[in-house]
């Protein structure tokens, strides 16, 4: 008997807090996914990092043996300076001296990566004034960009999603959830083809050291606003039409980001995903439910016997006396004033 009561109480507890349990499982699943990613990245990349470190140590050792007049400390200072400059996008190599990071088109490309929060990191402001302006520019520009993208996506969704679905549902008589799923799938296929596969083929042809996988990797990292910065187009030596190329990449990033937001918004409008999201959200208390709770409390209070409610009693030792208000006949008593 006790076990059945305990089991029933546990079931009622789970049923009454279903959203909280779903949210707890969501948090645990996300933590496990983070751990899974860390384990995979560590197991895959750590051997390559160790191999690269060994190669660099071997090259450094061989260089010092061939140049005995150069001490290891002077070489370390030189390399630290060169690496520090490389972090700001400045290279001392001869094949990179012709490329400027802060001409107009490169600055436009940098501004687009800042406002879209892509942030490749291959170029950074060098001066204190540039860093301060970057902070102010981002504080104003990022919300402005979100507003701009929201307005653009909302207008595109009318013609790319809502009207086609309603047209097919009305004229063909198909179920609206089914039409929405098929439409979202086709829209995702078109977006992947136009903003991932085709641009990856173009980048692999324009960039000499990129294959198709690396080009596709750049497209995905860029349009998902991850922006690792390990692959940045237009930075090769003697890049032909570099200014026009950088301008085209800027336009591609903005259009691709809009397309990705349209696809994501289309999938978020699916009824199946809406139901899935509701599993993890807190339920909003409706005004009718609130009124019902208040009426229930009022009825419960009025049905109680008079003696069950212990109200604080007044102190009867000093009875309350209603003092009259003192007024003068002429209204000119200086004490009253």
Automatic annotation (TrEMBL):
Metal-binding as UniProt keyword: no
GO MF, one example: outward rectifier potassium channel activity
Keywords attached to this entry: Cell membrane, Cell projection, Cytoplasmic vesicle, Disulfide bond, Endosome, Glycoprotein, Ion channel, Ion transport, Isopeptide bond, Membrane, Potassium, Potassium channel, Potassium transport, Synapse, Transmembrane, Transmembrane helix, Transport, Ubl conjugation
Potassium channel domain boundaries: 97-156, 193-268
Positions of transmembrane segments: 21-44, 135-157, 178-203, 215-232, 244-264
A Gene Ontology term for the protein's cellular component: dendrite
Chemical reaction(s) catalysed: Cs(+)(in) = Cs(+)(out); Li(+)(in) = Li(+)(out); Rb(+)(in) = Rb(+)(out); chloride(in) = chloride(out)
One Pfam family hit: Ion_trans_2
Subcellular localization(s) per the UniProt record: Apical cell membrane; Cell membrane; Cell projection, Dendrite; Cytoplasmic vesicle
Bilayer topology term: Multi-pass membrane protein
One of the protein's GO biological processes: stabilization of membrane potential
Residues with glycosylation annotation: 95
Alphabetical list of SUPFAM superfamilies matching this protein: Voltage-gated potassium channels
Main location: membrane
Cited InterPro entries: 2pore_dom_K_chnl, 2pore_dom_K_chnl_TASK, 2pore_dom_K_chnl_TWIK, 2pore_dom_K_chnl_TWIK1, K_chnl_dom
Entry keyword annotation includes Transferase: no
Quaternary structure note: Homodimer; disulfide-linked. Heterodimer with KCNK2; disulfide-linked. In astrocytes, forms mostly heterodimeric potassium channels with KCNK2, with only a minor proportion of functional channels containing homodimeric KCNK1. Interacts with KCNK3 and KCNK9, forming functional heterodimeric channels. Interacts with GNG4. Identified in a complex with PSD and ARF6; interacts only with PSD that is bound to ARF6. Interacts with UBE2I.
Entry similarity comment: Belongs to the two pore domain potassium channel (TC 1.A.1.8) family.
Protein name, entry field: Potassium channel subfamily K member
Source organism: Cyprinus carpio (Common carp)
Gene: LOC109052887
């Amino acid at each position: 008997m006790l076990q059945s009561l305990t089991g029933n109480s546990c079931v009622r507890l789970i049923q009454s807090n279903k959203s909280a349990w779903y949210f707890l499982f969501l948090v645990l699943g996300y933590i496990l996914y983070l751990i899974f990613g860390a384990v995979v990245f560590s197991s895959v990349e750590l051997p390559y990092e160790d191999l690269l470190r060994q190669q660099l140590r071997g090259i450094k050792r061989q260089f010092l043996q061939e140049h005995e007049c150069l001490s290891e400390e002077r070489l370390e200072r030189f390399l630290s300076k060169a690496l520090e400059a490389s972090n700001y996008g400045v290279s001392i190599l001869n094949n990179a001296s012709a490329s400027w990071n802060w001409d107009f088109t490169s600055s436009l490309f940098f501004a687009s990566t800042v406002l879209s929060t892509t942030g490749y990191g291959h170029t950074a402001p060098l001066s204190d004034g540039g860093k301060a302006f970057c902070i102010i520019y981002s504080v104003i520009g990022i919300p402005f960009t979100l507003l701009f993208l929201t307005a653009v996506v909302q207008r595109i969704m009318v013609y790319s999603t809502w009207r086609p679905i309603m047209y097919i549902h009305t004229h063909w008589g198909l179920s609206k959830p089914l039409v929405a799923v098929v439409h979202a799938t086709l829209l995702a296929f078109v977006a992947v083809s136009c903003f991932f596969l085709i641009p990856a083929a173009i980048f692999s042809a324009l960039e000499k050291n990129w294959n198709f996988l690396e080009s596709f990797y750049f497209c995905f990292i860029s349009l998902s606003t991850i922006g690792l910065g390990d692959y940045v187009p237009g930075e090769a030596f003697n890049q032909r039409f570099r200014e026009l190329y950088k301008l085209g990449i800027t336009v591609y990033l903005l259009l691709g980001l809009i397309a990705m937001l349209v696809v994501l918004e289309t999938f978020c409008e699916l009824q199946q995903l809406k139901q899935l999201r509701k599993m993890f959200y807190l339920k909003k208390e409706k005004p009718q439910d609130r009124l019902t709770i208040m009426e229930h409390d009022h009825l419960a209070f009025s049905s109680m016997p008079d003696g069950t409610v212990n109200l604080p009693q007044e102190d009867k030792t000093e009875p309350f006396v209603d003092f009259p208000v003192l007024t003068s006949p002429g209204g000119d008593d200086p004490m009253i004033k």
